[in-house]
Amino acid sequence: MPEPHDHIRAAAAERGLEIELRERPAARSLPEAAELLGIDPSGIVKTLVVKRSDGTYLFALVPGGRAISWPKLRSVVGVNKLRLPEAELALAATGYERGTITPVGSSTAWPVFADETIVGRRVALGAGTHGFSLFVDADDLIRAYDATVADITVPEATE
Fold first, then answer.
1. Which residues pair with 87 in a beta bridge?
2. Is residue 30 part of a domain?
3. How confident is the model over 33-62, as pLDDT tens digits?
4. E-strand spans in 40-152?
5. Domain contains 89
6. Which tens digits make up the pLDDT trace of 63-120?
7. Dist. CA 125–CA 53, nearest whole Å
8. Which domain holds residue 137?
9. Is residue 145 assigned to a domain?
10. CA-CA distance, 24 to 39, in Å (whole number)?
11. Where do runs of H (alpha helix) occur along the chain?
12. pTM of the predicted protein model
């Protein structure tokens, strides 16, 4: 019987990507999640699925404490319309539920756009299932997925 992460391990191996899957308890906030993983909040990278007006998608890798800058991302992608899809569309586009999305093992290899602040770091991403994180060297991930690296985020507003 296959293990829940066999396809992620296989997809990573296919691209020559070394990953570490780590089980973790649920967290109520980014700082709590970072503390549970023993890393800085900026080391947790959200993989956001973004829908283009032509019905195709892309992945945006956004470090903790930052948010997509829609004008910056539109400029880098070269389009004037992008949006976050509904949860069911994100699932259909990737095979993963929100909160678990990663480019690694996605049902479709959508283009990857990585915020420049992750370069040179070891980061934690979604791992395809709830309760796990996928650790990877960001530079290796960028190379493996031929990601476009650019300034695509802004600091999140703090209350």
1. none
2. yes
3. 999 999 999 999 999 999 999 999 999 999
4. 45-52, 57-63, 66-68, 82-83, 112-115, 122-126, 132-137, 148-150
5. yes
6. 999 999 999 999 999 999 999 999 999 999 999 999 899 999 999 999 999 999 999 9
7. 26
8. 6-155
9. yes
10. 13
11. 6-14, 30-37, 70-77, 87-94, 138-144
12. 0.94
Joined together, the tokens standing for residue 96 give 């993963």
Number of domains in the chain: 1
Structure tokens that stand for 4 in this block: 């829940």
**Tokens found for residue 68:** 């997509």
- In this structure, what token pair is assigned to residue 10? 């296989």
Question: 139: which 2 tokens?
Answer: 């530079």
At a CB cut-off of 8 Å and minimum separation 6, what does 150 contact?
72, 76, 113, 114, 115, 116
Distance CA 141, CA 123 (A): 10
